[in-house]
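Issue 218. Parser rejects a valid record. Input:
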Amino acid sequence: MAFLALVVLYRNDPSEGGFPVCPFHGTTGLLCPGCGAQRAMHHLLHGRVSAAWTHNALLVIAIPLLGLHWGAYRIRALTGSVANKRVIGAWVIVILVWWVMRNTAVMTGFAQ
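Output the parser choked on:
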């Protein structure tokens, strides 16, 4: 299913419409942590990292970090260790900080 979603994103530019819009942004005018993720992923799939960065920098940073986290989780699973709850808590904090920072930047005019 994820592969199919990536194929659809690769072949279709979300900027041209036809994709779901963010209900949070639509009702509040603020950006959620995932706003711009579809456009960012489209650009990443085409190798345009700087364009992806402008749409959702957290996604650009998170993809390799989540890959490393997944690999570490798989290694811990093989050794019988449990998942580190601090890592999950850190992700939650990073996402919340990102959410506040990007909306603060938008409201103060530092970002679009």
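Fixed in the parser; the record now loads. The two ends are 33 Å apart (CA to CA).
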